[in-house]
Design brief:
mainly alpha
């Protein structure tokens, strides 16, 4: 399989990359095409060795050559060869991609663990609330019928003292006394201070 940017034996000899970079800095698209055709197979090979994923390597290759196009004017021939400069850009981009991928996996793992712990805590909270509810229910059974009925209507039914009195057909003062005495007994049975 021939990669679209790979050279064949019929292609002309490669041009001097330093000259091409200077032409690219001046906006020469033809020079960019020649440089891409000449250098991209080596750059792709380097990126692929680092990433080990062909599609990601193709994306990084594209990013590298976009950077070459945008930054060609910054190339300094006194500091090194053009191909070396491009290979350094490619290496940096590939390593950045690996680090970003690792960071993303670690973040996903942390969030997954956090989500797992939260769901575990939800289950624990639900169980604790259920057990506490059973404790309260058992304690309510220890009250007199009149105290339990008044507390159930006021606290679980959401009725006011006046409404409880009307439902039970007793004076409001009697309802308040039953609720107060029942709450004292519940507090003692549940061990609440």
């Amino acid at each position: 399989m021939r990669l679209p940017w790979a050279r064949t034996a019929d292609d002309p000899a490669p041009a001097d990359p330093e000259v091409l970079i200077h032409r690219i800095a001046a906006g020469d698209q033809a020079a960019f095409e020649v440089l891409y055709d000449d250098v991209s197979p080596r750059v792709f090979g380097l990126i692929l060795r680092i990433l080990r994923d062909e599609s990601q390597s193709e994306e990084v290759l594209q990013e590298v050559f976009v950077e070459v196009w945008q930054q060609a004017a910054r190339f300094d021939a006194d500091r090194g060869r053009a191909v070396s400069w491009i290979m350094v850009l490619a290496h940096r981009r590939a390593v950045d991609r690996v680090r970003a991928s690792q960071s993303s996996r670690e973040r996903d793992l942390r969030e997954g663990i956090k989500g797992f712990e939260e769901s575990y805590d939800d289950v624990q909270d639900t169980v604790e609330a259920h057990l506490e509810g059973e404790r309260v229910h058992r304690a309510l059974e220890q009250l007199s019928e009149a105290q339990r009925r008044a507390i159930e209507l006021a606290y679980f039914g959401g009725f006011t003292h006046q409404e409880v009195a009307r439902l039970l057909e007793v004076p409001v003062g009697t309802v308040k006394t039953r609720i107060r005495d029942g709450m004292i007994k519940l507090r003692d049975q549940l061990g609440v201070a």
